[in-house]
Structure formats: structure tokens, C-alpha cells
Amino acid sequence: MLVATRVVFRVSNTFAEWSKVFDADRPNQEAAGIKVIFRGVSENDPSLVMAILEAEPGVLAKHMEGNPSVEASGHILGSEEFSNWLSS
């Protein structure tokens, strides 16, 4: 079963800088079974980012924990708000 996860978090740099590192990690994301559905920056707050990712349960958390590029991207660890969505 795949779960779509919406992650909202803060970055310490620009969205362009964050997305460059995030996109460079795409091969690792795909190898882990993570599909990027959407990524974007808040219209009103340039430090607020949202990503919607699809993966098997637990895969996203495991990928984030063991991935040094998450913090290197400017992603502020601990600022995340996660919500999971199931398809019918």
C-alpha cells in the first residue's frame, strides 16, 4: 500500500537553494521507492516549503533519518509537519 505524505517544513536558505539539493538526491529517493508528486514554496512565506511524496509506509521516515543531504539542503530539522493520505 502506498501512502501520500504531505510534509511542510522550514528552510534556512532559499527555495531555489533547497530544491537544488533535494533534486540532486532524486536518484536516492527513487531507489528507496519514494515518488515526488509535488514540491513548492509558500506564496506568503519564502522559508516555508511543502512536499508531497508517495511511498510505502515507513520508507520516507527511514530515508530522511539516514540522509545527510536533508539537513545540508537547508531543511530545518524538527520543523516538519507530516500528514498521511491514503487512496481508495
Structural notes for this entry:
It is globular, with a radius of gyration of 12 Å. With 88 residues, it is an alpha+beta fold. It has four helices and four strands, in the order βααββααβ. β2 and β3 (48-55) form a beta hairpin. The chain starts with a strand and ends with a strand. The model has no long low-confidence stretch (mean pLDDT 95). It is 32% helix and 33% strand. It has a single domain, classed as Alpha-Beta Plaits (2-Layer Sandwich), CATH 3.30.70. It has a four-stranded antiparallel beta sheet. The protein has helices at residues 15-24, 26-31, 59-65, 68-72, and strands spanning 3-10, 35-41, 48-55, 81-86.
- As an assembly, this protein is single chain
Which class in CATH terms? Alpha Beta
The level of helicity is 25-40%
State the shape: globular
Overall number of strands: 4
- What's the number of structural domains? 1
CATH fold call: Alpha-Beta Plaits
In whole angstroms, how far apart are the ends? 10 Å
Q: Give me the secondary-structure category.
A: alpha+beta
Based on the structure given, which CATH architecture is correct? Answer: 2-Layer Sandwich
Average predicted confidence as pLDDT: 95
Radius of gyration: 12 Å
Strand order of the largest sheet: 2-3-1-4
Following the backbone from N to C, one meets helices and strands in this order, namely EHHEEHHE
Number of helices: 4
Outline the low-pLDDT stretches. Answer: none
Tell me about the largest β-sheet. Answer: 4 strands, antiparallel
